[in-house]
């Protein structure tokens, strides 16, 4: 029987193992930490009974993932929960832009920009699943929906700063800018509109749900599905050399390119190894978790109904803070994402104390303490926030990298999205999952289609491995 070892028990490692196991491969997953999940884990960071997401928190691409839907994670205990409003973006003027799952409701709240919002996002939302089929794979593939992809392309290649000019109101520009900032690079560069378009459309198609009980529930369900398919998992087992990897016909690595080189660099073809060595990181985060008594005292009560609040001011401010961050300068007012997951999932709270999840975009490898900057940004739109905080847990950039070796330099996206690397990660290739070492594949978010709890990096890598065996998915 063909056997496979998966190094890394994050969502992509589990997805890769699950797809192989369902195709008759004997699968064993090895995870360095004492628990599986990678970026999709949960913990009582602040107080007992108050549940915080370790990293990934909102999952439009999780609920919409074609692979997870095929697996039916809900049958293994996963429950999705949606907030009343997906995202709020407050401005200093006192107004707030709101992203609803309903594109009509979103447009209605944007006044004169409502029609423009629908013009930008309407067809992408309607065609989201078909576009995802073509975009959530390596770029070198024959599209199944070329006309829809062709309509999307001219907008996707634009800098976010150019597409933002379509909107006339500060609210619509800010709402788009906050969504586009998830690309984690300068917004005045080509292709940066693409991720904002897809994240916005995914919200209109599927909403921005959370997993009941915390993001760790996603990987628990995936692990249960893997075990049900005959796979096995070992935790607390770091892999630091090839000798730590049991003999197998297939090895899939849910690791960063740097870790792949550390393990297999001496056997990789020179050209591929050099591409991996030149792979750029750059999406660092400084995370602060709060336990608060009651709800955040937002100036605009609508923010208190939103699962996510983007705290970054108007579009010009977001563009400038991302420019500074990308050039290695810590902005005075960094872009901050605030998560109020308990609004959709009250099981995360305890006795009136609620978890607040927040992180700031900071320069790669940032060595400072951004805690005060995060608090100041929240206080800017919620005066009195400090007074309701009863406990705080800080995850610095260095701690981020220490707790998850894939987060090199605190990069939570598995690599920079600047330039063509967004499309050609971890290297330009027809099959980017192949490492050049026979039977060894990369399946982490450093491979296409990139970051997100969709499991598709793992699924695609497993498909590549099955092709290498001469098999086809039934």
From TrEMBL:
Listed Pfam families: NAD_binding_8
InterPro entries on file: FAD/NAD-bd_sf (IPR036188)
Protein name, entry field: Putative oxidoreductase
Source species: Gordonia malaquae NBRC 108250
């Amino acid at each position: 029987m063909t056997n496979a070892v998966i190094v890394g028990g994050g969502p992509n490692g589990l997805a890769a193992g699950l797809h192989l196991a369902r195709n008759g491969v004997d699968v064993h997953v090895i995870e360095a930490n004492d628990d599986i999940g990678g970026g999709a884990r949960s913990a009582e960071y602040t107080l007992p009974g108050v549940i915080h997401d370790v990293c990934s928190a909102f999952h439009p691409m999780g609920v919409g993932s074609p692979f997870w839907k095929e697996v039916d994670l809900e049958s293994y205990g996963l429950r999705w929960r949606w907030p009343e409003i997906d995202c709020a973006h407050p401005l200093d003027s006192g107004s707030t832009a709101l992203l609803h799952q309903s594109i009509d409701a979103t447009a209605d709240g944007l006044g004169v920009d409502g029609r423009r919002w629908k013009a930008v996002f309407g067809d992408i939302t309607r065609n989201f699943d078909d576009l995802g089929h073509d975009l959530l794979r390596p770029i070198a593939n024959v599209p199944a929906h070329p006309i829809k992809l062709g309509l999307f392309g001219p907008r996707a290649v634009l800098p976010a700063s150019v597409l933002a000019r379509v909107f006339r109101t500060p609210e619509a520009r800010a709402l788009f800018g906050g969504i586009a900032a998830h690309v984690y690079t300068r917004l005045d560069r080509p292709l940066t509109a693409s991720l904002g378009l897809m994240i916005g459309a995914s919200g209109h198609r599927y909403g921005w749900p959370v997993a009941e009980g915390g993001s760790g529930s996603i990987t628990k369900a995936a692990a249960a599905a893997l075990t049900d398919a005959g796979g096995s998992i070992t935790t607390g087992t770091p892999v630091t050399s090839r000798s730590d990897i049991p003999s197998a016909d297939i090895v899939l690595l849910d690791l960063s390119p740097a870790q792949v080189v550390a393990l297999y660099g001496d056997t990789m073809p020179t050209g591929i190894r050099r591409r991996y060595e030149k792979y750029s990181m750059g999406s660092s985060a400084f995370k602060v978790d709060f336990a608060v008594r009651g709800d955040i005292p937002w100036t605009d009560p609508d923010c208190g109904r939103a699962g996510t609040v983007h705290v970054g001011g108007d579009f010009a401010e977001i563009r400038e803070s991302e420019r500074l961050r990308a050039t290695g300068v810590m902005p005075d007012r960094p872009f901050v994402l605030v998560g109020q997951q308990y609004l959709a999932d009250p099981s995360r709270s305890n006795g009136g104390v609620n978890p607040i999840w927040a992180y700031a975009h900071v320069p790669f490898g940032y060595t400072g303490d951004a805690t005060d900057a995060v608090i100041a940004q929240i206080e800017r739109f919620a005066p009195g926030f400090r007074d309701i905080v009863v406990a705080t847990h800080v995850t610095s950039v260095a701690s981020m990298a220490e707790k998850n070796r894939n987060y090199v330099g605190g990069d939570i996206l598995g690599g920079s999205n600047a330039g063509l690397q967004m499309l050609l990660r971890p290297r330009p290739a027809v099959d980017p999952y192949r490492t050049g070492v026979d039977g060894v594949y990369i399946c982490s978010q450093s491979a296409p289609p990139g970051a997100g709890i969709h499991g598709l990096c793992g699924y695609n890598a497993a498909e590549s491995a099955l092709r290498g065996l001469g098999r086809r998915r039934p």
